[in-house]
Each structure stands twice: as structure tokens, then as C-alpha cells.
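Let's do one together. I've listed all components of the complex below, 224 residues spread over two lines.
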Amino acid sequence: MSDQAKVGIVLVSHSAALAEGTAELAGQIGGGTVTIATAGGTDDGRIGTSIAKVERALRLADGGAGVVILPDLGSSVLTVRALLAEPEDLPEPIAVADGPFVEGAVAATVTAAAGGDIKAVLGAAEEARHARKL
Amino acid sequence: MPESCEATVTLTGDLHARPAGALAMAAAKFESAVELTAGTGRADGKSVLAIMGLGAAGGQEVTVRATGPDAREAVAALIDILTEATRVGS
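Okay, and this is what the predicted structure of the assembly comes out as:
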């Protein structure tokens, strides 16, 4: 199971620091075997999102088993959708997860690390909304 | 009739995020359903978030229960991780 390609993760955030910190956290909990690429902030380093950064992250995260994208807030979805509307030479398959950013990233990474397919990784990210922390 | 197996361990340290990830990843390798119990809390052993949500602390007993064809192996693997990964200082 461990020698097959793993699903990649792309974290899309309005903040580069938020995306990178979440990737670092999820990577540590997931044992560091999953590729987590980030697309945080605008092209000139402000708070916002960037189609070019999402595109680059998708290519980085692709290991042949597909990529799950986690947007931090609803408006990141607009940027992702704009890119996916014209998917030229993007990895396949790609799924966008409707779930909490931190919990979703951690659950998706652990599921991908365990060899889960794109459906399982997407499911883990979305199921994260039901996880209680208290 | 699926095989069922369980074992209990007393944590030597708190069950933090990294061991929770290690437990979920190990549990996912088994076909059996795996459940962790700590106090009144129950968690799906394949869900890292549920395991963290247990809030299991050092000194507390955690029971691992597995049901399925590889239940025995699943319980052994998870007990090992609980014993190793929650050692104080790790």
C-alpha cells in the first residue's frame, strides 16, 4: 500500500502564512509521506488568492493519484473554480473539499498517508466538519 | 462471525496530535473496524480527529477494540503505538 502513488493535497488560503503553517502541521501529523502544496496570498504577497499559485500548487502536489484542494474560506473557492473552469494540462482527478481548513487538512493528509484514494481523502476532509474537539 | 479482540493500556503521557496520526494511519491498514475508548469517550480508530477529540491524558486507560478478520493484529499494532508514542518526552 505504501509504495503506490499517494493523493496530493493543495491548501488554498488568503494568507501564505496560514497555508504554510497548516501544511507544516498536517505534514507532521501525517508522518511526512504526503505531498502538501500551498497556494497562499496574492502574487505580490498580500492577503488574497492567486490562480497562478493554485495552478503551480496543483502541479507540485500531483503524484499520479489525484489531488484534493482545501480552500480556507468560501471566496478561495472562486479562485479555484476559475482555474478549474479551463483545466489545461492540470492533473487528474481533482476534487475540492467542503470542510474546515485545519481539521480537513489534517484528516485528508492522514488518510492520504494511509493509502486512501481520492474519494477517501475527500471524504475525510469533508467529514472533518463533524469532528468534536471537546 | 467476525473475530473480536480488545486490550487496554494505561497512557504514560498525553495522547497528542502526532501519535493520533500514527494510530489512525496504522488502523487504516487493517480491514477490521477499530474503536478506541477513553473514559466516557469513544473514537473511530481510523479517524485522527476523533482520536484527538478523546482528549486522553497521561495516566488514563485507553481500550482498543477491533472487530474483523485481522482484529488481533490491529489491536496489537495500536497498543504498541499507544505504549511507545505517549511515553513522556516523545
